[in-house]
Amino acid sequence: MRKFLQRLLSKRVSRIADKYSSRPDKDRIHRALTALYNKISSGQEKKGLLIPFDNADQKFIILSDQHKGARNGSDDFAFCEKNYLAALDYYNQANYHFISLGDSEELWENRIPAVAKHNVAGFEKEALFLQRNAFTKVFGNHDLDWDNNPLAGIELQKIYGQKVPIYEGVILRTIVNSRPLDIFLTHGHQGDELSDGNWFSKWFVANIWAPLQAYLSINPNTPAYEDHLKTDHNRFMYEWIAQQENIVLVTGHTHQPVFQSMTQMEGLYRKLAVAKEAKNETNAQLIELEIQKKKLKGQTLPDFTGYKPTYFNSGCCCFNDGDITGIEIASTNIRLVKWEYGNDKKGLPGRVLLDEASLVSLI
After folding, report:
1. 292-322: per-residue pLDDT in tens?
2. How many helices (DSSP H) and strands (DSSP E) are in the chain?
3. What is the pTM of this model?
4. Of the CATH numbers 3.60.21, 1.10.10, 3.40.50, 3.30.420, which one belongs to the domain with range 22-218+229-258+313-362?
């Protein structure tokens, strides 16, 4: 019966969940981003951290949207956990600073003690960054309790063994080729009226979506390459950062990886145009084959040639194929990476570089 209902209801339930989980408003998003950036930039530490850094030496990994749950049927993170743990080992050993960019815990569907009980391994590895003073925790809409709950500080201290400040955003400030560059990071739910602390959305997820998801074992987070064109929310984010100077924006929230203002599919079309212009037929054919594997169906392609390369989205750590994606900043470069299970019999987690650009190219 359950398998029959999965086939019958999965797509319908996911569409309903999408309808009641997101309603981005362009003007609200732009006002919210401007206000938050100005507050952090002016030194209001309660809103967020301003971190000056040397882009040749210091390294950052940005992961978001883990949605750690309670290991029931609605826990989207469970299948990705081994990739996540392997990634944290890699980045801690390489002395990266870990920025957890919101929705790290799924607190719309679960209570904090249940999440803490079932995610001991992840919290222990995150605590290793904290012990090096290399861990920054940003809240999102699904873990807004970390900001709103008066007892959140006590709960976090129980989990990590020491106090953990919670921020709405971070600015990484550096100098590139004698010019200033701010990398502005926030979860990205701001300005979305169904996500920005909305009580009805939280009630719907906790009381309607979560029980259905648990029973039907639905994970709506399809692999990164299946999201071809940017969501409206990502487009609004891009349109805000396109108006700024010497600022790069990195968000999460939409679960859709974006690199230099484009999804992977959009990036392929831009690379195809470049290859054709250079009359590189071999490269063009290889790119066209890749596009055919992930072919867009019934969608009108925008012009990708005029994009400013200043918007990035870390994707998520709960894709239904077990992959996780993130943004690295290291060695004067910015990278989109994923961690996936190998194709061999052991299926061990491994890091895959999806895209890379120099920081100087962003100015």
Report:
1. 777 665 566 677 777 899 999 999 999 989 9
2. 12, 12
3. 0.87
4. 3.60.21
